[in-house]
Amino acid sequence: MIKLAFKFLHWLRQNVTKEQFKTILNATDEDIKFNRLAFGKRTSQMQYVNICSRTAQTVIKAGIQ
Questions:
Q1: DSSP-assigned letters across all residues of 16-41
Q2: Does an H or E element contain 56, and which?
Q3: Among 32, 42, 50, 57, whose CB has the most other CB atoms within 10 angstroms?
Q4: CB of 48 closer than 8 Å to CB of 28
């Protein structure tokens, strides 16, 4: 399962700018901290990929650099 997250992040890094990649990872981490850790929920690798994917879509659609 860890390979899934690693492969996704590797693919993502190749398909967005360096700044977008940093923004996506930071926003994903903040989302997890706020919505999951605050309630004592653990985040699986698959959930991480899903959250990161949704965040990436938002960043790309918004044209955030």
A1: S-HHHHHHHHHHHHHHHHHHTGGGT-
A2: helix 45-62
A3: 32
A4: yes
Look up residue 20 and give its two tokens. Answer: 């977008």
Give the single-character DSSP code of 16: S
Q: Select the more confidently predicted residue: 4 or 65.
A: 4
Q: What are the sequence ranges of the domains in the chain? A: 19-65
pLDDT at site 1: 54
What are 3-61's pLDDT values in tens digits? 889 999 999 999 999 999 999 999 999 999 998 888 888 889 999 999 999 999 999 99
DSSP state of 52: H
- Report the alpha-carbon distance of residue 30 to residue 25 in Å, rounded: 9
